[in-house]
C-alpha cells in the first residue's frame, strides 16, 4: 500500500484539476480524504510553502465554498490564521448571513418585508477584520481582499469608513472589479468622485499597467454622474482603440447614447454586442428600456423569448418578460415578473425601478414610492428612481416633496430637459412663478421646445409682464396653435387691429383647438375688422 505522504501528494495534485473542471462534489470528497490522511511520518520530507495542515484546511474549505456549504467552510477554517484563510472564512460568514437573511425575508413588498432585514454576521465580521488589520500590516492580494470585504460590510451598514478600505483594496490589488464597483457606490456626487479619482491618480500603483483599471473606473463614474461630459467620450475613444472587442466598452457607449436620448444609436450598439455574444444577458435592462421607449413590440417579444430560452431563472430574463407585458399594457403581469426577479436577487436595481413605474401606471402611489426607495437603497445615483419618486408624490398632490425628488434627479442628469420640465411644473403648482420661469429657461437652454416657450409666455402673463409674454408667444407660433389666439387677444387689447385680425383669422383657418376657442377667434376677427380704418 502507498505511504500516507504519497497519497497526500497525489490528492493535492488531483484537487486543482477537479476544481478547475468544476467537479465540485468530487473535489469535496477528495479534500475530505486529504484531511483525513494521518500526519506524515516523522522523518518524511516534503517541500512545503506553508504548514501542511493549514494548506489542506484551505483546500477543504474551498470545496465546501464551491458547494455553497458556507457554514462548513467557516468551521473548517477556524484554526487557520493566514490572510487567505481569514478572507475565505469571513467571506463565507458574510454569504451565509446573506442567505439566511434572504430566507427569513417575506414576499417582496409584503407587509412583513420591510427591506431592512439585517445580516446577523456583519458585526462579528467587522470586529474580526479590525483585529486582523491591527496586527497585520503587510500588503498582499489577500490583504486587499480583506479590505474589500471590510468595505462591503461597512457600506451595508452605511458607514462612511467603507470608502477608505475600498480605496486601500484597489491600490493593493487593482484587478478586483467588484472592489471598484463598491467604491463607486460610496461616491454620490461629482465632487466626491473627482476627489477620489484625483487621490488614486496620485498613487504610484497606478503609474503602469494597473492604470487601465482606474480608467475603466473613471468611465463608469462619468457615466453615472457626468454622462454628457466630453471627457467621457474622449476616454471611451481612447480605451476602445486599445480594447476594440471589449463588450464592457460597447455597453458604456450604448449607455451614453441612451442617456443622450439617442435610442437608435443605443439599439444599434446593443445589436452589435449580441451579434458577437449572442447568449449574453448582462446589461439587458438598458436594452429593453431602449426597445420599450421606441415601442418595438416585436423585437421586445423576440428578446423575451430569447432570454427565457437562455435562462428563465435569471433576474435579467424576468425583467425582459416584465417589460414586454408592460408595453402591452398588462401592468399586473409585469409586476408579477418584477417580483420574480427580486425574489432571485433583491439588489436587482432595474426591477425595483421598473416595478415602481408599473405601480404609477396603476395609480398605486404608495407601492410605487416603496419600490423606488428600495431602488435607491441599491444605488443612490439612479436618477430614474428619484424621478419616479417625484412622479409618485405628484400624483398624491404633494408637490413640495415631488420638487425635492425632481431636484435630486436633475442633479444627476442636468442635461436632461425632462428633469427641469418636471421641476418647473412643481413650481407652478406651488405658485412660485418666478422660480418656474427660471427653470423653464434652463430647460429651453437644453432644448428649444415650443412647449417651453409657450409655458414661459403664460407664466410671464401670470406675473403681469405681457411684453415678455408676447415675445415668447411669437417664438412658438409654429409649434403651439394657441399662441395665435393669445396674440390675437393681446393685439386687440392694445389696438393692433390688423395684427389681431390676422392672428385670429389664421387660428380659425387652422381650426385647431376647442370649439369655444375657434368661436372666440372668429369673434376677435369680426371685432378687429370693424375697427380697422
TrEMBL record:
InterPro entries assigned to the protein according to its UniProt record, in alphabetical order: APC8, TPR-like_helical_dom_sf, TPR_rpt
GO molecular function: cyclin binding; ubiquitin protein ligase activity
Superkingdom as given in the UniProt entry: Eukaryota
TPR repeats: 349-382, 383-416, 417-450
Cellular-component GO terms for this entry: anaphase-promoting complex
SMART domains on file: TPR
One Pfam family linked to the record: ANAPC8
Domain Cdc23: 7-254
GO biological process: anaphase-promoting complex-dependent catabolic process; cell division; positive regulation of mitotic metaphase/anaphase transition; protein ubiquitination
Protein's UniProt keywords contain GTP-binding: no
Protein name (Swiss-Prot/TrEMBL): Cdc23 domain-containing protein
Keywords, comma-separated and alphabetical: Cell cycle, Cell division, Mitosis, Repeat, TPR repeat, Ubl conjugation pathway
Keyword DNA-binding: no
Amino acid at each position: 500500500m502507498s505511504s500516507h505522504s504519497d497519497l497526500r501528494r497525489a490528492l493535492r495534485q488531483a484537487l486543482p484539476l477537479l476544481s478547475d473542471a468544476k467537479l465540485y462534489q468530487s473535489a469535496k470528497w477528495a479534500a475530505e480524504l486529504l484531511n483525513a490522511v494521518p500526519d506524515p511520518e516523522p522523518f518524511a520530507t516534503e517541500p512545503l510553502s506553508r504548514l501542511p495542515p493549514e494548506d489542506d484546511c484551505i483546500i477543504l474549505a474551498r470545496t465546501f465554498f464551491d458547494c455553497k456549504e458556507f457554514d462548513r467552510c467557516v468551521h473548517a477554517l477556524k484554526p487557520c490564521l493566514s490572510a487567505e484563510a481569514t478572507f475565505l472564512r469571513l467571506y463565507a460568514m458574510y454569504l451565509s448571513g446573506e442567505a439566511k437573511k434572504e430566507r427569513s425575508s417575506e414576499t417582496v413588498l409584503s407587509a412583513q418585508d420591510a427591506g431592512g432585514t439585517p445580516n446577523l454576521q456583519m458585526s462579528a465580521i467587522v470586529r474580526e477584520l479590525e483585529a486582523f488589520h491591527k496586527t497585520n500590516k503587510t500588503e498582499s492580494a489577500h490583504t486587499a481582499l480583506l479590505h474589500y470585504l471590510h468595505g462591503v460590510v461597512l457600506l451595508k451598514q452605511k458607514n462612511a469608513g467603507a470608502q477608505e478600505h475600498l480605496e486601500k483594496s484597489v491600490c493593493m490589488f487593482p484587478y478586483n472589479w467588484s472592489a471598484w464597483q463598491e467604491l463607486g457606490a460610496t461616491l454620490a456626487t461629482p465632487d466626491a468622485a473627482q476627489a477620489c479619482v484625483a487621490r488614486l491618480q496620485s498613487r504610484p500603483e497606478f503609474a503602469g499597467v494597473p492604470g487601465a483599471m482606474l480608467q475603466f473606473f473613471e468611465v463608469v463614474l462619468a457615466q453615472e454622474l457626468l454622462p454628457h461630459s466630453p471627457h467621457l467620450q474622449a476616454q471611451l475613444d481612447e480605451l476602445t482603440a486599445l480594447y476594440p472587442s471589449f463588450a464592457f466598452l460597447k455597453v458604456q457607449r450604448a449607455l451614453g447614447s441612451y442617456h443622450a436620448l439617442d435610442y437608435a444609436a443605443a439599439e444599434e450598439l446593443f445589436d452589435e454586442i449580441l451579434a458577437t455574444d449572442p447568449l449574453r444577458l448582462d446589461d439587458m435592462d438598458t436594452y429593453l428600456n431602449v426597445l420599450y421607449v421606441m415601442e418595438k413590440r416585436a423585437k421586445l417579444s423576440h428578446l423575451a423569448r430569447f432570454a427565457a430560452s437562455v435562462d428563465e431563472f435569471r433576474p435579467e430574463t424576468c425583467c425582459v418578460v416584465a417589460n414586454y407585458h408592460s408595453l402591452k399594457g398588462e401592468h399586473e403581469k409585469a409586476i408579477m415578473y418584477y417580483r420574480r426577479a427580486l425574489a432571485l436577487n433583491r439588489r436587482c436595481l432595474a426591477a425595483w425601478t421598473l416595478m415602481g413605474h408599473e405601480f404609477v401606471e396603476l395609480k398605486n402611489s404608495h407601492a410605487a414610492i416603496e419600490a423606488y426607495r428600495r431602488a435607491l437603497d441599491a444605488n443612490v445615483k439612479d436618477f430614474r428612481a428619484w424621478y419616479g419618486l417625484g412622479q409618485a408624490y405628484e400624483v398624491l398632490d404633494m408637490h413640495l416633496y415631488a420638487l425635492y425628488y425632481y431636484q435630486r434627479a436633475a442633479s444627476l442628469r442636468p442635461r436632461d430637459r425632462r428633469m427641469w420640465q418636471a421641476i418647473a411644473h412643481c413650481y407652478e403648482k406651488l405658485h412660485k412663478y418666478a422660480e418656474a420661469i427660471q427653470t423653464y429657461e434652463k430647460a429651453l437652454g437644453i432644448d428649444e421646445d415650443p412647449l417651453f416657450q409657450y409655458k414661459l409666455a403664460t407664466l410671464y402673463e401670470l406675473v403681469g409682464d405681457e411684453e415678455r409674454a408676447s415675445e415668447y408667444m411669437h417664438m412658438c407660433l409654429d409649434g403651439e396653435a394657441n399662441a395665435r389666439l393669445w396674440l390675437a387677444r393681446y393685439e386687440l387689447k392694445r389696438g393692433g387691429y390688423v395684427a389681431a385680425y390676422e392672428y385670429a383669422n389664421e387660428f380659425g383657418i387652422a381650426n385647431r383647438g376647442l370649439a369655444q376657442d375657434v368661436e372666440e377667434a372668429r369673434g376677435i376677427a369680426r371685432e378687429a375688422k370693424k375697427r380697422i380704418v
